[in-house]
Design goal:
CATH topology: Na+/H+ antiporter like fold
Strand content: under 5%
Order of helices and strands: HHHHHHHHHHHHHH
Largest sheet: none
Number of domains: 1
Low-confidence stretches: none
CATH architecture: Up-down Bundle
Oligomer: single chain
Mean pLDDT: 77
Number of helices: 14
Structural class: mainly alpha
Number of strands: 0
Shape: globular
Protein backbone atom coordinates (compact mmCIF):
# COMPACT_ATOMS: atom_id res chain seq x y z
CA UNK A 1 0.00 0.00 0.00
CA UNK A 2 2.73 2.46 0.99
CA UNK A 3 4.92 1.44 -1.95
CA UNK A 4 2.09 1.87 -4.47
CA UNK A 5 1.22 5.27 -2.97
CA UNK A 6 4.83 6.42 -3.30
CA UNK A 7 4.96 5.19 -6.90
CA UNK A 8 1.75 7.08 -7.70
CA UNK A 9 3.24 10.22 -6.16
CA UNK A 10 6.37 9.90 -8.28
CA UNK A 11 4.40 9.29 -11.48
CA UNK A 12 2.28 12.42 -10.92
CA UNK A 13 4.99 14.63 -9.51
CA UNK A 14 4.31 17.63 -11.74
CA UNK A 15 0.77 17.89 -10.35
CA UNK A 16 2.02 17.33 -6.81
CA UNK A 17 4.57 20.13 -7.17
CA UNK A 18 1.97 22.55 -8.53
CA UNK A 19 -0.36 21.64 -5.65
CA UNK A 20 2.44 22.13 -3.10
CA UNK A 21 3.27 25.50 -4.66
CA UNK A 22 -0.31 26.74 -4.44
CA UNK A 23 -0.78 25.24 -0.97
CA UNK A 24 2.41 26.90 0.29
CA UNK A 25 1.36 30.31 -1.03
CA UNK A 26 -2.04 29.96 0.63
CA UNK A 27 -0.68 28.68 3.96
CA UNK A 28 1.91 31.47 4.05
CA UNK A 29 -0.90 34.02 4.07
CA UNK A 30 -2.47 32.67 7.26
CA UNK A 31 0.58 31.27 9.08
CA UNK A 32 1.72 33.16 12.16
CA UNK A 33 5.30 33.68 13.31
CA UNK A 34 5.26 30.48 15.36
CA UNK A 35 4.10 28.41 12.39
CA UNK A 36 6.68 30.02 10.13
CA UNK A 37 9.38 29.27 12.66
CA UNK A 38 8.37 25.61 12.75
CA UNK A 39 8.30 25.45 8.96
CA UNK A 40 11.75 27.01 8.75
CA UNK A 41 13.23 24.49 11.20
CA UNK A 42 11.98 21.71 8.92
CA UNK A 43 14.10 22.83 5.96
CA UNK A 44 17.23 20.79 6.74
CA UNK A 45 15.38 17.56 7.70
CA UNK A 46 13.22 17.83 4.57
CA UNK A 47 16.29 18.42 2.39
CA UNK A 48 17.77 15.28 3.89
CA UNK A 49 14.54 13.35 3.19
CA UNK A 50 14.62 14.55 -0.41
CA UNK A 51 18.25 13.66 -1.12
CA UNK A 52 19.03 10.68 1.14
CA UNK A 53 16.84 8.07 -0.63
CA UNK A 54 18.60 8.77 -3.92
CA UNK A 55 21.99 8.37 -2.27
CA UNK A 56 21.12 4.77 -1.37
CA UNK A 57 21.37 3.94 -5.08
CA UNK A 58 24.94 5.22 -5.35
CA UNK A 59 27.89 2.89 -5.73
CA UNK A 60 30.81 4.64 -4.00
CA UNK A 61 33.26 2.92 -6.36
CA UNK A 62 31.71 4.92 -9.20
CA UNK A 63 32.21 8.15 -7.26
CA UNK A 64 35.92 7.40 -6.92
CA UNK A 65 36.24 6.80 -10.67
CA UNK A 66 36.93 10.49 -11.33
CA UNK A 67 38.02 9.96 -14.92
CA UNK A 68 34.47 8.94 -15.85
CA UNK A 69 33.13 12.30 -14.63
CA UNK A 70 35.62 14.65 -16.31
CA UNK A 71 33.37 15.60 -19.22
CA UNK A 72 30.16 16.40 -17.29
CA UNK A 73 32.15 18.30 -14.66
CA UNK A 74 34.05 20.28 -17.30
CA UNK A 75 30.88 21.13 -19.23
CA UNK A 76 29.03 22.16 -16.07
CA UNK A 77 31.86 24.51 -15.09
CA UNK A 78 31.99 26.04 -18.58
CA UNK A 79 28.26 26.69 -18.67
CA UNK A 80 27.97 27.77 -15.03
CA UNK A 81 30.83 30.23 -15.00
CA UNK A 82 31.01 31.45 -18.61
CA UNK A 83 27.61 31.20 -20.29
CA UNK A 84 25.21 31.79 -17.39
CA UNK A 85 26.92 34.96 -16.04
CA UNK A 86 26.90 36.50 -19.53
CA UNK A 87 23.25 35.52 -19.96
CA UNK A 88 22.41 37.03 -16.56
CA UNK A 89 24.09 40.31 -17.52
CA UNK A 90 22.10 40.50 -20.77
CA UNK A 91 18.76 39.63 -19.15
CA UNK A 92 19.41 41.98 -16.25
CA UNK A 93 20.04 44.85 -18.67
CA UNK A 94 16.87 44.05 -20.63
CA UNK A 95 14.38 43.31 -17.84
CA UNK A 96 15.72 44.85 -14.62
CA UNK A 97 16.98 48.29 -15.59
CA UNK A 98 17.02 50.47 -12.49
CA UNK A 99 16.19 47.58 -10.15
CA UNK A 100 19.49 46.69 -8.51
CA UNK A 101 18.03 44.10 -6.11
CA UNK A 102 16.55 41.95 -8.88
CA UNK A 103 19.70 42.28 -11.00
CA UNK A 104 21.96 41.15 -8.15
CA UNK A 105 19.58 38.30 -7.38
CA UNK A 106 19.81 37.11 -10.98
CA UNK A 107 23.61 37.25 -10.83
CA UNK A 108 23.60 35.05 -7.72
CA UNK A 109 21.24 32.57 -9.39
CA UNK A 110 23.65 32.42 -12.32
CA UNK A 111 26.73 31.83 -10.19
CA UNK A 112 25.22 29.37 -7.68
CA UNK A 113 22.93 27.23 -9.85
CA UNK A 114 23.19 23.82 -8.20
CA UNK A 115 21.22 22.85 -5.09
CA UNK A 116 19.85 19.92 -3.14
CA UNK A 117 17.22 19.53 -5.86
CA UNK A 118 19.98 18.40 -8.26
CA UNK A 119 20.47 15.02 -6.61
CA UNK A 120 16.75 14.39 -6.21
CA UNK A 121 15.82 15.26 -9.80
CA UNK A 122 18.77 13.36 -11.29
CA UNK A 123 17.77 10.23 -9.42
CA UNK A 124 14.07 10.61 -10.25
CA UNK A 125 14.91 11.03 -13.96
CA UNK A 126 17.25 8.00 -13.96
CA UNK A 127 20.32 10.11 -14.70
CA UNK A 128 23.94 9.48 -13.73
CA UNK A 129 23.76 10.36 -10.05
CA UNK A 130 27.47 9.79 -9.46
CA UNK A 131 28.42 12.35 -12.13
CA UNK A 132 25.83 14.78 -10.77
CA UNK A 133 27.27 14.56 -7.25
CA UNK A 134 30.86 15.10 -8.37
CA UNK A 135 29.78 18.06 -10.53
CA UNK A 136 27.72 19.52 -7.66
CA UNK A 137 30.65 19.37 -5.26
CA UNK A 138 33.12 20.89 -7.72
CA UNK A 139 30.65 23.61 -8.77
CA UNK A 140 30.01 24.69 -5.19
CA UNK A 141 33.73 24.80 -4.39
CA UNK A 142 34.47 26.86 -7.51
CA UNK A 143 31.50 29.14 -6.70
CA UNK A 144 33.01 29.88 -3.30
CA UNK A 145 36.29 30.92 -4.92
CA UNK A 146 34.62 32.99 -7.66
CA UNK A 147 32.16 34.78 -5.38
CA UNK A 148 34.84 35.53 -2.78
CA UNK A 149 36.72 37.47 -5.47
CA UNK A 150 33.81 39.10 -7.31
CA UNK A 151 31.32 39.96 -4.57
CA UNK A 152 32.00 43.08 -2.45
CA UNK A 153 32.09 42.61 1.31
CA UNK A 154 29.11 44.95 1.69
CA UNK A 155 26.85 42.38 0.00
CA UNK A 156 27.35 40.00 2.91
CA UNK A 157 28.40 36.87 1.02
CA UNK A 158 29.44 34.09 3.41
CA UNK A 159 31.57 31.26 1.99
CA UNK A 160 30.66 29.22 5.07
CA UNK A 161 27.06 29.13 3.85
CA UNK A 162 28.11 27.33 0.67
CA UNK A 163 30.29 24.92 2.64
CA UNK A 164 27.28 24.12 4.83
CA UNK A 165 25.22 23.57 1.70
CA UNK A 166 27.87 21.18 0.37
CA UNK A 167 27.78 19.21 3.62
CA UNK A 168 23.97 19.17 3.77
CA UNK A 169 23.19 18.32 0.16
CA UNK A 170 26.13 16.05 -0.69
CA UNK A 171 28.28 14.69 2.13
CA UNK A 172 25.83 13.84 4.94
CA UNK A 173 23.15 12.21 2.72
CA UNK A 174 25.81 10.36 0.72
CA UNK A 175 27.43 8.84 3.81
CA UNK A 176 24.06 7.88 5.32
CA UNK A 177 22.91 6.45 1.99
CA UNK A 178 26.05 4.36 1.64
CA UNK A 179 25.60 2.85 5.12
CA UNK A 180 21.95 2.09 4.35
CA UNK A 181 22.82 0.55 0.98
CA UNK A 182 25.36 -1.82 2.52
CA UNK A 183 22.94 -2.93 5.24
CA UNK A 184 20.06 -3.48 2.83
CA UNK A 185 22.20 -5.56 0.45
CA UNK A 186 23.58 -7.57 3.35
CA UNK A 187 20.07 -8.26 4.65
CA UNK A 188 18.04 -8.75 1.46
CA UNK A 189 20.65 -9.58 -1.16
CA UNK A 190 21.08 -7.80 -4.49
CA UNK A 191 17.72 -8.92 -5.91
CA UNK A 192 15.85 -7.82 -2.81
CA UNK A 193 17.63 -4.48 -2.92
CA UNK A 194 16.63 -3.97 -6.58
CA UNK A 195 12.99 -4.55 -5.66
CA UNK A 196 13.23 -1.82 -3.03
CA UNK A 197 14.73 0.77 -5.39
CA UNK A 198 11.39 2.18 -6.71
CA UNK A 199 10.45 3.05 -3.12
CA UNK A 200 13.46 5.34 -2.83
CA UNK A 201 12.20 7.51 -5.69
CA UNK A 202 8.81 7.81 -4.01
CA UNK A 203 10.37 8.91 -0.73
CA UNK A 204 12.44 11.51 -2.54
CA UNK A 205 9.26 12.76 -4.24
CA UNK A 206 7.73 13.35 -0.80
CA UNK A 207 10.77 15.47 0.04
CA UNK A 208 10.40 17.45 -3.20
CA UNK A 209 6.74 18.14 -2.42
CA UNK A 210 7.54 19.30 1.12
CA UNK A 211 10.48 21.53 0.13
CA UNK A 212 8.36 23.30 -2.49
CA UNK A 213 5.61 23.80 0.10
CA UNK A 214 8.12 25.20 2.61
CA UNK A 215 9.73 27.53 0.07
CA UNK A 216 6.38 28.97 -0.99
CA UNK A 217 5.22 29.34 2.61
CA UNK A 218 8.32 31.33 3.54
CA UNK A 219 8.08 33.59 0.47
CA UNK A 220 4.28 33.89 0.30
CA UNK A 221 3.98 37.35 1.85
CA UNK A 222 6.72 38.84 -0.31
CA UNK A 223 5.34 37.28 -3.50
CA UNK A 224 1.70 38.22 -2.95
CA UNK A 225 2.39 41.63 -1.40
CA UNK A 226 3.21 42.92 -4.88
CA UNK A 227 1.96 40.29 -7.36
CA UNK A 228 2.61 42.55 -10.37
CA UNK A 229 6.29 42.96 -9.51
CA UNK A 230 6.55 39.25 -8.70
CA UNK A 231 4.98 38.34 -12.03
CA UNK A 232 7.43 40.67 -13.75
CA UNK A 233 10.36 38.55 -12.53
CA UNK A 234 8.90 35.33 -13.93
CA UNK A 235 9.51 36.05 -17.62
CA UNK A 236 13.28 36.68 -17.38
CA UNK A 237 13.67 33.68 -15.06
CA UNK A 238 11.85 31.41 -17.51
CA UNK A 239 14.03 32.72 -20.35
CA UNK A 240 17.14 32.24 -18.22
CA UNK A 241 16.32 28.69 -17.09
CA UNK A 242 15.13 27.59 -20.53
CA UNK A 243 18.25 28.95 -22.27
CA UNK A 244 20.58 27.22 -19.82
CA UNK A 245 18.72 23.91 -20.14
CA UNK A 246 18.80 24.09 -23.95
CA UNK A 247 22.54 24.81 -23.94
CA UNK A 248 23.08 21.93 -21.50
CA UNK A 249 21.06 19.56 -23.68
CA UNK A 250 22.93 20.65 -26.79
CA UNK A 251 26.34 20.12 -25.22
CA UNK A 252 25.15 16.87 -23.67
CA UNK A 253 24.08 15.50 -27.05
CA UNK A 254 27.51 16.34 -28.48
CA UNK A 255 29.76 15.07 -25.70
CA UNK A 256 27.89 12.86 -23.18
CA UNK A 257 25.89 9.67 -22.98
CA UNK A 258 22.19 9.85 -22.10
CA UNK A 259 22.49 9.42 -18.34
CA UNK A 260 25.30 11.96 -18.03
CA UNK A 261 23.28 14.36 -20.19
CA UNK A 262 20.43 14.16 -17.68
CA UNK A 263 22.88 14.79 -14.84
CA UNK A 264 24.32 17.84 -16.63
CA UNK A 265 20.88 19.41 -17.08
CA UNK A 266 20.06 19.08 -13.39
CA UNK A 267 23.46 20.30 -12.23
CA UNK A 268 22.95 23.40 -14.39
CA UNK A 269 19.35 24.28 -13.54
CA UNK A 270 17.23 22.10 -11.20
CA UNK A 271 14.24 24.54 -11.09
CA UNK A 272 12.91 23.07 -14.36
CA UNK A 273 13.48 19.56 -13.04
CA UNK A 274 9.88 18.38 -12.85
CA UNK A 275 9.16 19.55 -16.41
CA UNK A 276 12.25 17.84 -17.84
CA UNK A 277 11.58 14.65 -15.88
CA UNK A 278 8.06 14.38 -17.27
CA UNK A 279 9.34 15.23 -20.75
CA UNK A 280 11.78 12.31 -20.59
CA UNK A 281 9.18 9.92 -19.21
CA UNK A 282 6.08 10.94 -21.16
CA UNK A 283 7.63 12.03 -24.46
CA UNK A 284 11.12 10.56 -24.95
CA UNK A 285 10.39 7.18 -23.34
CA UNK A 286 7.24 6.84 -25.45
CA UNK A 287 9.16 7.58 -28.66
CA UNK A 288 7.07 10.70 -29.39
CA UNK A 289 8.00 14.11 -30.71
CA UNK A 290 6.97 17.32 -28.98
CA UNK A 291 4.37 17.82 -31.73
CA UNK A 292 2.87 14.38 -30.99
CA UNK A 293 2.75 15.17 -27.27
CA UNK A 294 1.11 18.55 -27.88
CA UNK A 295 -1.44 16.83 -30.14
CA UNK A 296 -2.40 14.47 -27.33
CA UNK A 297 -2.99 17.38 -24.99
CA UNK A 298 -5.22 19.11 -27.52
Amino acid sequence: MIRSSLETLKQNLIYVVVGALIGGLAFGQVAGETSRGLVQTAIVPVLFLMIYPMMINIDMNEIRNLRAHVRPVGLSLAVNFIFTPLLAVVLGAIFFQGTVEYTVGLYFIALIPTSGMTAAWTGLADGDLESALVAMAVTLLVAVAVLSVLVPGSVGFEPAALYRQLAQVVLAPMLAGNVTRRRLIRRYGWEGFRQLKPTFGGLSSVGVMLIVFIAMTMRSEAILADPVASAGTIVPLIVFYAAVVLVGLGLGRLFLDEQQRVALVYVLQPPLGVVYMHYRRDVVAEGMSLRDAAGRLV
